[in-house]
Design goal:
heterodimer; A: 71% helix; B: 326 residues; mainly alpha
Chain lengths: 197, 326
Amino acid sequence: MAPKPGLQADEAALIRAAQAGDRAAFEQLVRAYDLSVLRLAMNLLRSPEDARDVYQEAFLRVFRKLDTFRFDCTFHTWLYRIVTNLCLDHLRKRKVRKEEPAIVASGEGTLDRMDLIPEARADGDPQRQLFSGQLRQRVKEVLSQLSPRERLVFEMRHYQGMRLRAIGESLGTTEEAAKNCLFRATQKMRIALGDFV
Amino acid sequence: MSANNGSLNCAETQTQLAMLLYGELSFDREEQVESHLDGCAACRESLERQRALHAALDAVQIEPSPSLLIECRGDLQARLMEEPDQPAKPHSGWWDQLVDLLTLRPPSVGSSVRWLRPAGALTLIAIGFFAARMTPLMTFRGGPFRAMGVGQSAASRVRTVEPEPDGRIQIVLDETRQRTVAGRMDDEPIRALLLSAARDPSDPGLRAVTVDILNSHAQSAEVRDTLVYALRHDQNAGVRLKAMQGLKPFAGQPEVRSALEQVLLTDSNPGLRTQAIDVLTSGPSEDLDRQMVGTLQELMDRESNAYVRQRSLTVLQAIKASAETY
């Protein structure tokens, strides 16, 4: 998750302005990171409603606690600590409830959320479409079998492209612990999805 | 292949393949893995399978829709409006400082005017004293009431009636009185009144005239915020349209652009949706970024009005973008 080009140089100034009460500066900070935050929450929680909750709560917390930000880590790391904690809370609550919000109501009955996701280009080839559908189903199953931490680390490394060091900082752990988590996640993925590749 | 001289065997190598693809191996470990791969066809095949697995996982990534992002931003903006300002505000203006003094609000961190708080309290007392002296006496005890002319009030309502022992009656009135103020946009009170009138929910005509005036001062961030608010929330399409006209020169700014995208995807008025397309795409076509294309593609998915669809399609065709999302 890289901020927009040119932002890095101005970011400290933006943060200071936002800390002094400049709401326009705060909005610029939000705009620099919010798509990445929403993408992480969406991919992790696989629910637009939950992703929306995380987005809302994360940036409200940032707004309320911004005066405590002391530049002793990057703003990105600080923001992601908040976001990942919220995502972990959501995932843990689901584990407790033993349910995945995989089903949504629609005008035509209930639909699986994964099926609502736009299909990756399958070039109109029926066999490829079938394969793609099966793969999506299997990915969904294996994702739900990962622990919340494994799932989070996998998401941040694979889809967000974050380095393990940054993931460790965001999760308040070491790079080595993040690496172990990713290792377990990829092993499970490989076992579960080996037939497809 | 088995391990010897610190090199890796097949099982050890295969556990490292995912980390190799993520670029997360140390220099030495990567050397060991690559050295093993150079001499082991089976592990090279495993690496290819791991690469295919990564590619397959890439294909199921979800990209949030532009409308979800816009809705999230709108929700957040609404929530932030309910939040008090950040406590640290070292450069607050004279008005804020005066309000702080008069309302005895705690001064901001680092403020140098703490000693003025007692002075603020005294000011309040003085204002109260002189205001009382200058306000016409509103009792029956003398002539001033008659001179004031209760019937001339724009609106008055009897709040309480109380007979007194000497036969008089004391009536308390609630009055709404008109007052005329005049000034230029640069005058703070005029500006504050206009910004407030633009959000007055009771009178769309008043809002339309006010937004018209504000449009010629949209270079001010404060005015622009009010126009963005009108564009997003005003119940009257005419007022929203006027606000959009005022914001047109600022369509490149993030908050304006976000409001225009919201109109494009969610406004109930097709005329406004069409205008939003024109404003958002009025720059050089090469400046239309991926997000804008995504927004237009999403519009093609959900738009029911044929003319709006056609406008959107024309723009997408002009930049050789697909009209569909996959």
